[in-house]
Every structure is written in structure tokens, then in C-alpha cells.
Amino acid sequence: MLKALVDAGIEPDLVLGTSIGAFNGAVFASDPTDAGITHLEQLWRGVAEQNLLAARPLDRARTLYRTRLAIQDPEPLRELLADALPVDRIEDLTVPFQCVAASIERAAETWFDRGPIVDALLASAAIPALFPPVEIDGELYYDGGLVNSVPLDRAIELGATEVYVLQVGRLEQPLRRPKHLYETALIAFEIARRHRFGSMRDRTIDGVDVHVLPSANEVQFDDPRQARWTDMGETSALVEGAYVASTAYLAALGDPT
User: pLDDT digit string (tens) for 192-247?
Assistant: First the structure.
């Protein structure tokens, strides 16, 4: 999606990110050019090829014993981000950038627009039970998707008049009635996740154009692939599919017919 935007000559004035979107958004904000996109593609293809995020059951048991709260050690991600980003602080990125995390103590969203960048990104992506919460300035944070999964309202609040939403695919798939007990929790999470964005998108906001780029990802909310989050064997196919679909979408925007 980012490559399609760059190829179409669309330059960002502001980048907002939540969870994995914060990772990609920060790397893009450090170099919003074709070279930056190439760097980002190489980053994720390298993660897939080297299986960097995989962990043995024994390692996960050790992480759970050490943290009491999570099964995945965040250090590989910390090292990955530190190597991928050319700056240490958010305010030093080429394009203004913000990411969101959920404060445990205040049960509220917190936006980071300055300070140590890797800590903020890890907080934004600290999925409960998978990763331990991240402490910043004495406060603990979980994944920003808990409070603002698709931060359209934040973009508008900050003055955006043209917004491009880059999402992972589930927003394109309608929910259905649950058929099994385990699906009830998944559907409840999806309703909470989509409601805030959907409410904002459905409003008529004068002077604001919102574009949800297509991912070409057929994943459903209950797709078992989502449980295999360390299996990144489909990375190249997902990148190419999103590029083709988003390129076609942007071309249609510019076609008066």
C-alpha cells in the first residue's frame, strides 16, 4: 500500500500508527521515498526468511516464568526496530509521526509524538498475553488496538483533510453470526475494534476525504492463520497483492470517468 501511494506521488504530511501499523509507519516516516519502501520490504522479507519471531515452546515457557504475563520475548522486536530505524527519537523522523498505546493505569489511549521511538512502538504493539506490557515513564502500556485500532478520529483532530487508511484486511470482511463458542470472543473483539472507526467513517465530515486502501487479503476474522502469527511465509504474496489492489484503487481515483 505504501509503495502504491509513493508511486502515485502522494506525499504524507503526517503518519499515524497503531500496533504493527506503528512499526511500518515509523519506518516509512523515516524515509517516505521509494528507497524507504524498498528498505521496509527487505525488512519484513528478512524477518520471514530468517524466522526471527519464532520461539521454541521452552523459550516461551521461560518468558512466561520470567514475566508472569506473556509468552513472547519482545527483545527480538526491539533489536529489529533499533536496526531498522535511523533515529532514536520520534521527533527526529523525517515526517511527523505519532503512535498510540493503551494505558493500563488510566484505561485510556496515549499518543506518543516525541521521546524514545522503540519503546513507544513496542508499547503500541504489546498484545496482551503475547507480549508483556511496556513501561514508559512509570506507566504500563498495552497494544494501541485496544483503544484506537484505526485512528481516523486522531487524524481529523490533527487537521487532516485527506486520509489514507492502510489496514490489514479484516475491515474489508463482514462479520457473521457465531457458530462456535470460541468465535463469540473473536466477534466481540472485532465489534469493539471496528466500531470507533466505522462511526467516524460513516459521518459526513466537510472537507475531509477518507480512502480505505484495499489489501486484497481474504483473511476472515476467524481465519486460523491469525493464530500462527510467527508464520510469515505469505509475506511476499501479501505485499504484492496489496500493491496491485491499491495501485488500481488510486488510479481509479484519478480517472474522471
Answer: 778 888 888 777 688 899 999 998 877 666 676 666 667 777 888 889 999 999 99
Distances (CA, A) of 24 to 1, 15, 19, 79, 145: 11, 10, 9, 15, 15
HSE-CB of 246 using CA atoms within 13 angstroms = 27
Cα gap 215→61, rounded to integer Å: 35
Cell of 9: 506521488
Q: How far is residue 88's CA from residue 6's CA, in Å, rounded to a whole number?
A: 25
Q: Would you give the DSSP letter of residue 26?
A: H
pLDDT, one tens digit per residue, over 85-115 is: 999 999 999 999 999 999 999 999 999 999 9
Contacts of 171 (CB under 8 A, 6+ apart): 150, 165, 194, 197, 212
Size (the chain), residues: 257
The three-point CA angle 56-233-61 to 5° equals 15
Three cell numbers at 245?
489492489
